[in-house]
Design a protein that fits this description.
Family: Belongs to the class-II DAHP synthase family.
Structural class: alpha/beta
Catalytic activity: D-erythrose 4-phosphate + phosphoenolpyruvate + H2O = 7-phospho-2-dehydro-3-deoxy-D-arabino-heptonate + phosphate
Number of domains: 2
CATH class of the largest domain: Alpha Beta
Pathway: Metabolic intermediate biosynthesis; chorismate biosynthesis; chorismate from D-erythrose 4-phosphate and phosphoenolpyruvate: step 1/7
Largest sheet: 8 strands, parallel
Shape: globular
Keywords: Amino-acid biosynthesis, Aromatic amino acid biosynthesis, Transferase
Order of helices and strands: HHHEHEEEHHHEHEEEHEHEHEEEHEH
Helix content: 40-55%
InterPro entries: Aldolase_TIM, DAHP_synth_2
CATH superfamily of the largest domain: Aldolase class I
Number of strands: 14
CATH architecture of the largest domain: Alpha-Beta Barrel
CATH topology of the largest domain: TIM Barrel
Bound molecules: erythose-4-phosphate, phosphoenolpyruvate
Radius of gyration: 21 Å
């Protein structure tokens, strides 16, 4: 069947399949009322914007652009405030400038923002000091606080997620279109970072080159409009299907369904079963979509996902986000890339170097080493370079704040520092310094 002819029957077919990682809602009448209310809300993004992103991702698949996708592991309602959103955008823009210069190609900027409110979990419950409660599944479902009331799955949170996403998107549109994203200003922030970073000398070369390029352009009288505005897209894991279905609309231009909760949606490693509800639902929406692929993925799994999610080979439609772990990427990735590339399918390859590299520190904090993160990206580049395919970019968990959740980086954050500002609601994020360290080091890989 052509994916282009989806009907509302198709959009609800997932309901008859196994949907993993769905919250059990205490009150189904309330869920119904909430989803009806959501279905009547205006779209958060527009189908035309999703199509524009698809075109840009098609350029990435052709090797003509790269992707920088990132943001919180789990956004919180409390964190959807102007300071936190501005800091995340600022960090992402700073990283993007460095990568744009190094790659000499456009960088497609996608936030894990404005909707990343639901989390798949390894276990349905959490036990602390002998007390067992339902696991935290993201602010869309319940609260991170460890009390029975906070951990109750509350359908009204779906509405709060929608309104928080709207607030965040409003802020991102203001920050990226209202002059804040001016290239010269972003470069000045990077120069400050290089001057203050213990590893700064290593980055001075790139920062200096960008500076000279900008001075040259100014001297030539070139001051393009594009310098002061950037295109920024939203994304999140399409996990809670009642929410995603309620926010799916038929585009009046084309008569095709789009999930207007975000520009880009992805299917997680835990919910990518071919015969599962998530693959079934996402195959019918026309947004650009991604699938996370962990180390157990076989080349045949990848081909079957392509057949199911992009049978017509639409460029920019499908992104594979590989998250193998630093120790496995060099063995697990080549068979996938080789076979997919051999099939001729136009796939974007992104590296998520976070989710295969998590471990528990002695203090009990979940953490990641920046060295492992960089090693996985290095392996990802090695594999793509060896096979002649395009390393399409990175998918990161980071924040613009000075948290202490991951180890390493120019400032040498150690395990013993983790307790100082450990604020994530789920997995550990790179802080602002570590994110910029990473951007300069990945820039070297693109130049290499
Ligand atoms: O972000 C990814 C997952 O939600 C997270 O890694 C799950 O963590 P858990 O193993 O603590 O449930
Ligand atoms: C859960 C996530 O990742 P994965 O599906 O790769 O485990 C995530 O990116 O939040």
């Amino acid at each position: 069947m052509s994916t282009q002819s989806s009907t509302s029957f198709d959009l609800d077919a997932w309901r008859g399949l196994t949907a993993l990682q769905q919250p059990e809602w205490a009150d189904s009448a309330e869920l119904e009322a909430v989803t009806a209310e959501l279905a009547a809300q205006p779209p958060l993004v527009f189908a035309g914007e999703c199509d524009q992103l698809k075109e840009r991702l098609a350029a990435v698949a052709r090797g003509e652009a790269i992707v920088l996708q990132g943001g919180d592991c789990a956004e919180t309602f409390e964190g959807s405030n102007a300071d936190a959103v501005r800091n995340k955008i600022k960090t992402l823009l700073q990283m993007a400038v460095v990568l744009t210069y190094a790659g000499s190609v456009p960088v497609v900027k996608i936030g894990r923002m404005a909707g990343q409110f639901a989390k798949p979990r390894s276990k349905p419950t959490e036990t602390r000091d002998g007390v067992t409660l339902p696991a935290y599944r993201g602010d869309m479902v319940n609260d991170v606080e460890f009390t029975p009331e906070a951990r109750r799955n509350d359908p009204r949170r779906l509405l709060r997620a929608y309104y928080s996403a709207a607030t965040t998107l409003n802020l991102t549109r203001a920050f990226t279109k209202g002059g804040y994203a001016d290239l010269r200003q972003v470069h000045a922030w990077n120069q400050d970072f290089v001057a203050g970073s213990p590893a700064g000398q290593r980055y001075e070369l790139v920062a200096g080159e960008i500076d000279r390029a900008l001075t040259f352009m100014r001297a030539c009288g070139a001051d393009p409009e594009e310098f002061s505005e950037v295109d920024f897209y939203s994304s999140h894991e399409a996990l809670v299907l009642d929410y995603e279905r309620a926010l799916t609309r038929i585009d009046t231009r084309t008569g095709l369904p789009y999930d207007v909760s975000a520009h880009f949606l992805w299917i997680g490693e835990r919910t990518r079963q071919l015969d599962g509800a998530h693959v079934e639902f996402l195959r019918h929406i026309r947004n650009p979509i991604g699938v996370k692929l962990g180390p157990t993925t076989t080349a045949d799994d990848a081909l079957a996902l392509i057949e199911r999610l992009n049978p017509e080979g639409e460029p920019g439609r499908l992104t594979f986000i590989t998250r193998m772990g630093a120790g496995k990427v060099r063995d697990a990735l080549p068979p996938l890339v080789e076979k997919v590339n051999g099939s001729g399918a136009p796939v974007v390859w992104l590296c998520d170097p976070m989710h295969g590299n998590t471990f528990e520190a002695e203090s009990g904090h979940k953490t990641r080493r920046l060295d492992d993160v960089l090693d996985e990206i290095t392996g990802f580049f090695e594999v793509h370079r060896a096979l002649g395919t395009h390393p399409g970019g990175v998918h990161l968990e980071f924040t613009g704040d000075d948290v202490t959740e991951c180890i390493g980086g120019g400032h040498g954050l150690a395990e013993s520092d983790l307790h100082e500002r450990y604020e994530t609601a789920c997995d550990p994020r790179l802080n602002r310094q570590q994110s910029l360290d990473l951007a300069f080091l990945v820039a070297e890989m693109y130049r290499g």
